[in-house]
Amino acid sequence: MVGPVTRTYDSDSDDYPGDEVYELVWDDMQSIESLQSSPVKPSSSTHRPSMITPLADRLAASLNRVDTDIRNVRLSKDTEQSELDEDCEEESPITPNKPKSLVLFPESRTNGVKRTLQNTTTRPSPKVRRTTANQTERFGFAPPSSCSDVFDQPAPVRKPIVVQAQHRVKSATLAFEPSGHQLTLAMVSHDRNVQALMDARCLAWGVIYEIARGVTRGAWKWSDVTPEKLDRLKGTNVQSAYKVNTIIGDKPVPIQPPASDVWAEYDREEKAIKENLTRGLGLMGEWEGQRNWYGGSIQQRVRLVKNPTSSRLAYSFQLEKPEIRRSNRFSRFLGSRRMLQLSVPDDLLLREGDQLRGFLSGVKLVLCGRIYVPFHAKDNSLYMMESDEDYQRKPLPFYGDEHRLSFAEFVKWHNPLSLNSNQPISKWSTRWALGLSTSVPVLEFAPEDIFSIDDKIAPHDKSQGKPPAAKCMTDGCGFINGAGLTQIMRIMEYPNRPTAVQGRIAGSKGMWVLHPDPSEQFADGPPKIWIRPSQDKIKLPPLALVDRAHLIFDLLAPSRTTIPSRISAQTIVNLSFNGVPNEVITSLMKEGLGEEVKSLTEWNGPDAMVSVWRAVERAGHVVHSRLRKRAAGQARALGLGRDRSEKDAEQDSDDDFGKEEASSPLSPGYDGQPSSVYESAMTLIQAGFHPINLQPLFDKLKIILTMVINQYVSSFHMPVQESADAYIIPDPFGVLKEGEIHFRSSESLTNPATGAQFDTVRGEVLVTRNPTRLPSDIQKVTAVSHPKLDNYYGVIVFSTKGDRSLASWLGGGDTVTLIWSKPLVDSFKNSPFTEELVGLLNAFESHVESVMDFDERVVTLSAGQAQKEFQTILLLGLAETKVGLYSKFHDLAVYEYGYSSEQAVRMAYMFTTCLDSSKTGLRVRSEIFKKDHGAYASKAAYYMKKVETSDRFLVTNNTTYITKRHTSEPFILDVIVHEGLKLRDTHLNQYEKRGETLNRKLDKDLCKPFEDAEKRAVNAEKQGFPGLSHNLHEIKEHVDGVGIFWKRISAQSAREREGSPRKNSKHTSVRVCQRTSFQKRLSFFRGRD
């Protein structure tokens, strides 16, 4: 039985859309009646506190909302816009004693979106229709008599509630509407006849997806999918999806289905989609056995494949295994199954960039009759949404097809062109990334609890128009009250309330910090939030009229402190340039490396092996990785750091079709084999083995030790014990002087000289962000303790006084590295701000076009050409920005000409301009890039080449040559590599010598089962049963054969490593994983023969 269908009427029709209005009030009426008769009050996590007000107040609030909705749909375009503008201009505060708008139960997702779109469209809204008899037929019961007068009489016109201090939003009339209808269809996988058979049987989406995935992987053809096989695949995702590979592939079906969370999650989402109450957005309590459930956590990925030249089509597509990875606003709003992510290989984009972009900007993908339209490109991936179009199939209520949005409606819902027409369209396009951030829904704000607050701006020349970003002292940071932070703490189960949170709400992004007003710091009460103009990236209709998704706070991460911090190669070069002696930096490396080596090689003592186990775990981030797997898309929101990159994820995606995952994210696999050398060593240690008595453990620790040393020397990531990483916030009270900061750590700090513990840093410190490319990117400031800021722990508070913000001196990003190590701080000297070179922008092609200008340009084109132009804008993220190349060019310019040289400064600004090119629309001129490429592409610094050509390091490129420096002073990274290589050899030689004391005897406990079996075999053979002896003989032959085979391929692999170029030190661990994987295959060596 399908729920009520929201109908769409033409604006010229005489029919009134009363059904929508009736649904809203009827839901509330039913809820009130059920609550009145129920002895149990609704849970506060599901309903708002206002639900416990008297029945009359709740009913009045509900009718007020109905009156507002009726008024909204009755107003014509001109009347509605003028009244909304007047409300926004008045900015009158909400009366404190006036009851807030009530939502007992969420309205349908379709109604909420349509209501939002009515306030962004330029078409007049339809009139209101009275109730009809067919409403009884639709709902199965008649409306209560108490509602009849509401619909029989014209509703009074009431102005919608306008948020206090909300900025006026002006709407432009645009001719272009992005429909997506004119795009060319590109087939991922589809068969008309089979699709009809699958729809007739109402197969679960997971089953359909797996059938199509098998076709794209070459496991079978569509012709192999017969009605008889499909009949065996009926049922839910949990019941049937795991059978696809066996039934379609004609293999035995497992007696017991393997545990897989993804199929259960598909079933939850399917129910939520058909329910159509925006449950997928979260914050509606338990759902299908999952506490605090929200949707959108399944990733459906497609890989673009280059076809052979003999193929009729240039490209094809391969579906990847669906996985529970991360959730974002779009996937929660649409549903996981209504989004696809197309991955484009790096090498293909490099070779055929223009051709590929031309192809992708003109197509939409077809998967099993559904049509997916691209809307954004980021990190070599295209993101697509399932529109309301179908190909060779009819929409079915079983799949909730009637609730789908058109592409035009999706654009209007997220980033309406008419309300953002003054933005450069390239910047408008980047705003899609706000909805793709991995996040967790944690709070839903009432519209009247969302406020606007001005930014604090430093003195500037107002005649020049908008102040520069450097003058904004509060850039990207608003306020949230204590009740909101407390609710986030409870929902996420943090051990304590965070001081600040990073997130998204409506069209805004950034940080929100605890409100400085003591009256807003209480733990109880409704959550409130204050948004600054610098955070507001997308203009939406008045918040009283937007869809529920825009009122939910999507949490990215809480404020957290990482101690100690690690400095990078760029930071080291900056420290050296600004006066820190090379000896101080190299001693820092020696001390840090010595501590790491010591923790892995001290094996004597009562608890020595416990310390070794911890050191191995820390080196391999084993526990952290397991927690991240278990947390899936919540890892960053739980304070576990950023998600693994898409590129890393793609490296594991070449799975064999039909291969099931382990039943638990914490288990290494069905065979129990540890997934890395770190886990293998940890398992042996906790089983009680000692490296002196077990050769395999000794060898594994040697591999780990080598990788730890390589990491130190080759990547230059060195820990500084007296340092921390934390988010920065502007001073909420304005009590810090210019050049002052405040930092109170969320965990205890220790003075290495005295052993005393403290939590607030005082005195001179260094602050920096990543990347660090200019001399002024590290600043020495003074850390102070101020009583007003004592509650702001775990964040670094920057002063809001001065001519420009302190953050504008540093690189980009929300996280700052704070260093209070005296050897580094005392010798450091600040550099003046490094200005951009005059005429730098002449190196770029500028095509800055506003949304309005784009509309005027494409209005003269055909509908198909206009849509392709729009898609080209949406997919600007696929354009070659040359960021990576200019990063390398800058490193080489610094090495050759000096850190503050004109060449190095130019390359630094070329890099940062390329980094922002997706927003600005700037592209490096071809002749400029050709010149820069010729000057640097074939060069390498000494430290790069030395690391690459070392016999225990990895080679990246044999065609480069070492460039000559224009100064006789030693370069700090050259010094570090030289010292590091000596340290590496010393430590590894010392480890090799310890191997001379190894106990070569066989372990009695490990050998006992086999020895017992030999005794039993001898006794059995004496009794005339030689079978066991024969089996043991075969086992010996198998083990000896595998041992010989392994030694041979290990020697071959070593020879290949000596002569084969490799890209980076990651491959050391990759090779270990490959060995582990190969060992798993060898366990079935004899059986395969």
Automatic annotation (TrEMBL):
Signal peptide: none annotated. It catalyses: RNA(n) + a ribonucleoside 5'-triphosphate = RNA(n+1) + diphosphate. Residues 318-945 form the RDRP core domain. The keyword Nucleotidyltransferase applies. One of its GO terms (molecular function) is RNA binding. One of its GO terms (biological process) is siRNA processing. Residues 641-650 have a biased composition (Basic and acidic residues). Keywords: Nucleotidyltransferase, RNA-binding, RNA-directed RNA polymerase, Transferase. GO terms for cellular component: nuclear RNA-directed RNA polymerase complex. It holds the Pfam family RdRP. It is an enzyme of class 2 (transferase). Residues 76-102, 634-673, 1053-1072 are annotated as: Disordered. Residues 81-92 have a biased composition (Acidic residues). Belongs to the RdRP family. This is RNA-dependent RNA polymerase. It comes from Serpula lacrymans var. lacrymans (strain S7.3) (Dry rot fungus). The lineage of its organism: Eukaryota, Fungi, Dikarya, Basidiomycota, Agaricomycotina.
